[in-house]
Design brief:
Rossmann fold, alpha/beta, six-stranded parallel beta sheet, 23 strands, globular, about 700 residues, 4 domains, five-stranded mixed beta barrel, about 15% strand
C-alpha cells in the first residue's frame, strides 16, 4: 500500500503546467517517491513527489483542460504555497516562444535564437527579468507595464552563474546537460523527446511570407542557452509585428504566459525551451524537445545547489501561529525585505513595529514574515500573541507556555508572562521570533494594572535575548513608536498593479480583471485597500456577478453603500471574533481615539460632515491649546485616518473612513448634531460672502 507523503519534507516546487512539461520533469528526477499527498476539500491539484541531488521535489501541474494564463498559474502556486509550508524556492520550467533578433540596432542584441534553445530569466540593471507586458497603466505618455515582479531568488541566480562559468556550452554533446537530456530521451520508448530535424525549424520574416535563411548548426551543438528578460502575458502571441515591438521595447528573449502569476507568490526561477516564434506558424512538433531541454537545464540548477545548505525541517521547534499561510498574499516585497533585514541583528533583542491603516494588510505581512522565517531559520521558534485585549493576550501567553513546556504555568497564581519572559531570555531557548498582533492600545502596554501577579506593565514583560526578535503590528503609529522606537515599517496603500494582482488571485473567475476599465474604477472606489478588495471579491464570487455590477452598487445612495460594506464575510486569515466588514473595521480604532484623545474624535466627527479632501486645518474648531490641536491631528495621522498636505497645511480624510464614520454617527444619532456644529463653525469662519472677511 502506498504511503502518505509529508508535505513538510518537500522544499523545492517544480512547476510544469503542461502534461508534456510534467513528463519531462519526472524524467529528470533521480527517483519518484512511492506514495501520495493527502487531499482535502478545496484542493484543486494533485502533486507528485520525488528526489533530485538530495533535494525533495514536488512536481506541480495543471488539471487536464485548464485554460492558460497568469491567473491559472497563480491559483496553482497559491495552493502549493499553502500546502507545502517549507518550500525554499520554485522553478517554473516549460516551453515558450523565442524571439530571435537578426537585425538589431545594437550589435550586442544580435540573437540567433532557434527552436529547441533554452531561455533563462536573468535580471539586469533595468529589470528583474520578467516583464508583464499586458498589465499596467495606459497613459498619454504610453503604456507602462506592471511595476515589479519579484526577482529570481539569489540561490537560483548563483546556480545559473555557476553553469555559465563552468559549462560554456552546456548542451554540447557529452557535456553535463546534454547527458541529462539524453537520459530522458532514451527512457522514452516513443522517442517524443528527440530533437526534430533542423529543416522543421522555420522562421518567417515579419512583414512578408518569406523564409529567413539561416546556416544549419552543428548537430553536436544543436541547443544553445540564452539569458535575459522574458515577457509574460495573458494571451497566446500569434502576431509577429506585435511580437517584435515587445522584443525591441523591453529587450526580450522570449514570451510566455505563467511567470507573472507566480513570481510574487513564491521565489521562482524561470527556464523555458523554445517551441515556436510567437507567430502564426505555431505547432506542437517542438514542444517535447523544448520541454526536455528546459528540464535538463533546471536539473543543472538543482545539481549546482548543495542540498546541505537548505534548511532542514524540525517539527520539534515551536511554531505557534493561528493562521495558515495566506495563498493570496500579494506584493509588499519592499516591506518584507526591510523586515527580514532587521531580524536577528545587533547584540540585543530586535524590535520592529508594522503600522498602517486598519485593513491595509499588517497582519498578513506579519504572517508572511512568520512563514518565511520558519523556512529560512528552521531552528527558530515562531510565537504569535494576539494583543487585541488583555484577555486574549493572557490566553495566548498560556498557550505559548504550554507549547514551550514551561513547568508551573498551570498553577493558579503563576505569573505566566514572567515565566515566558524568563524562558525566552535564556540562551538555551535558541533563536526566536515573537509577534504581537494588533498592539493598538498603548495603555495596555505602559499602564500599571494592579498589585496582583501578572499586573505589572506589559512592556516590562518583553523577553531580552541576542537571539530574539519582536515584531508588533499596530494601527497607531504613536503606540508603534513607544514599543519599537525608530524601527517602524509603514504599510502603504497598494498601487494599482499589485491591487489588480490581489483581485485576480482571489476571484473565482480571474478573467474578470481583463475588463481593464472596470478593474481600474473598482480598485479606485475601494481605495486599493486589501480588506475592501477581499470583501468585494467574496460578494462577487458568491453572487456570480461581474466587476461592473459591483461598481453599480458602490455608486448607490450612501446608506446602500454602507449596507454593502457592512456585510459580514468569512476570511480564514482574520480572527473569528473580529469584525471583518470594511464599514466596521475602524470602529475599535475610533473608540480608542475617543478614550485617549477626545479632541481628535471631535475633529474626526467634524471632518465626516464636510468633503473629505483638502480640508484647511484652520477650518477645524479651536482646541484648548495649540499643543492639544497639534496632538489631535497627530493622533488621526498616526491611525492613518488622515494624510497631511505640507504645502498648504490642508488635510485629506480617507474616503472609506469618511463613509464609515458617517455611518457610525448616523447609528448613534449624532450625525445631525455634528452637522449643526459644522454649520456653526462655518458661519464663524465665513461671516458673510465677502471673501476679504474669510479667515482661512
Amino acid at each position: 500500500m502506498s504511503k502518505v507523503l509529508d508535505f513538510n519534507e518537500y522544499t523545492i516546487a517544480w512547476v510544469a503546467v503542461l502534461p508534456i512539461e510534467a513528463e519531462a520533469a519526472l524524467g529528470m528526477l533521480d527517483k519518484q517517491h512511492d506514495g501520495y499527498f493527502e487531499t482535502v476539500r478545496g484542493d484543486d491539484y494533485i502533486y507528485i513527489g520525488g528526489e533530485l541531488n538530495g533535494h525533495k521535489i514536488v512536481v506541480a501541474t495543471w488539471p487536464a483542460g485548464q485554460n492558460y494564463g497568469p491567473g491559472a498559474a497563480a491559483a496553482l502556486v497559491n495552493q502549493v504555497k499553502a500546502r507545502f509550508s517549507n518550500i525554499w524556492f520554485a522553478l517554473l520550467v516549460g516551453v515558450a516562444a523565442g524571439l530571435p533578433n537578426h537585425s538589431p540596432e545594437h550589435p550586442a542584441k544580435l540573437r540567433d535564437i532557434r527552436l529547441g534553445d533554452v531561455l533563462v530569466c536573468v535580471p539586469d540593471k533595468d529589470s528583474v527579468g520578467i516583464i508583464q507586458y499586458d498589465l499596467g497603466r495606459d497613459t498619454e505618455e504610453g503604456f507602462f507595464p506592471n511595476g515589479r515582479q519579484a526577482e529570481t531568488p539569489a540561490i537560483v541566480r548563483s546556480a545559473i552563474g555557476n553553469i555559465q562559468l563552468t559549462k560554456k556550452k552546456p548542451f554540447r554533446a557529452g557535456n553535463t546537460l546534454a547527458n541529462y537530456l539524453a537520459i530522458v530521451q532514451q527512457a522514452d520508448e516513443d522517442g517524443r523527446f528527440l530533437c526534430p530535424s533542423q529543416s522543421e525549424d522555420k522562421l518567417f520574416a515579419r512583414l512578408e511570407d518569406t523564409l529567413v535563411t539561416r546556416e544549419p548548426r552543428d548537430e553536436s551543438e544543436r541547443t544553445k542557452v540564452w539569458y535575459g528578460n522574458i515577457g509574460s502575458g495573458s494571451s497566446l502571441m500569434r502576431n509577429p509585428i506585435r511580437r517584435d515591438e515587445l522584443r525591441d521595447k523591453y529587450d526580450l528573449i522570449g514570451l510566455e504566459m505563467e511567470a507573472a502569476g507566480i513570481m510574487n507568490t513564491l521565489p521562482t526561477g524561470v527556464i523555458r525551451g523554445v517551441c515556436d516564434y510567437g507567430d502564426s506558424e505555431k505547432n506542437k512538433i517542438w514542444q517535447p524537445y523544448a520541454a526536455a531541454a528546459a528540464a535538463a537545464y533546471a536539473k543543472g540548477i538543482l545539481c549546482a545547489i548543495n542540498p546541505k545548505v537548505k534548511a532542514q525541517t524540525d517539527n520539534t521547534v515551536p511554531f505557534i501561529v493561528p493562521f495558515d499561510r495566506n495563498p493570496n498574499f500579494t506584493g509588499r516585497m519592499d516591506q518584507l525585505a526591510e523586515l527580514e533585514g532587521r531580524l536577528f541583528i545587533g547584540e540585543q533583542t530586535s524590535k520592529i513595529a508594522i503600522t498602517g491603516l486598519g485593513g491595509v494588510g499588517k497582519t498578513q505581512l506579519a504572517l508572511e514574515l512568520a512563514y518565511r522565517t520558519r523556512a529560512k531559520y528552521q531552528s527558530c521558534s515562531v510565537l504569535w500573541i494576539p494583543a487585541t485585549n488583555i484577555e486574549s493576550l493572557h490566553q495566548a501567553y498560556l498557550g505559548v507556555a504550554r507549547q514551550l513546556g514551561i513547568a508551573d504555568c498551570e498553577e493558579d497564581k503563576a505569573d505566566v508572562k514572567r515565566l515566558v519572559q524568563g524562558y525566552l531570555s535564556k540562551e538555551s531557548a535558541g533563536q526566536w521570533l515573537l509577534v504581537f498582533d494588533n498592539a493598538d492600545d498603548i495603555d495596555m502596554w505602559i499602564a500599571e494594572a494592579g498589585v496582583e501577579p501578572e499586573s505589572g506593565r506589559l512592556i516590562d514583560y518583553l523577553p531580552r535575548s541576542q537571539q530574539g526578535s519582536i515584531v508588533f503590528t499596530s494601527r497607531d503609529r504613536k503606540a508603534a513608536v513607544k514599543l519599537a522606537h525608530q524601527n517602524i515599517v509603514e504599510v502603504p496603500e497598494m498601487d494599482e498593479d499589485i491591487a489588480t494582482q490581489l483581485l485576480q488571485k482571489s476571484l473565482v473567475n480571474p478573467g474578470l480583471v481583463n475588463s481593464r476599465s472596470d478593474t481600474k474604477a473598482l480598485l479606485k472606489e475601494l481605495t486599493y485597500l486589501p480588506l475592501a478588495i477581499i470583501q468585494a471579491v467574496v460578494y462577487i464570487n458568491e453572487n456570480g456577478i461581474i466587476l461592473a455590477d459591483y461598481l453599480l452598487l458602490l455608486v448607490d445612495q450612501e446608506e446602500d453603500v454602507i449596507d454593502l460594506l457592512s456585510e459580514e464575510f468569512e476570511d480564514d486569515e482574520r480572527y473569528h471574533n473580529t469584525k471583518n466588514p470594511v464599514a466596521t473595521t475602524w470602529l475599535i480604532s475610533f473608540e480608542q481615539i475617543r478614550h485617549r484623545d477626545p479632541l481628535a474624535a471631535n475633529y474626526l466627527s467634524f471632518m465626516c460632515c464636510i468633503d473629505p479632501k483638502d480640508i484647511p486645518q484652520s477650518l477645524l474648531p479651536p482646541g484648548p491649546s495649540r499643543k492639544k490641536e497639534m496632538e489631535a491631528i497627530g493622533t488621526l495621522n498616526a491611525y492613518s485616518f488622515i494624510s497631511k498636505r505640507p504645502a498648504d497645511l490642508a488635510l485629506d480624510l480617507h474616503r472609506l473612513v469618511h463613509l464609515s464614520m458617517r455611518n457610525w454617527l448616523r447609528k448613534e444619532k449624532l450625525l445631525a448634531h455634528s452637522t449643526e456644529g459644522v454649520i456653526v463653525r462655518l458661519e464663524k469662519v465665513f461671516p458673510d460672502e465677502d471673501h476679504k472677511n474669510r479667515s482661512i
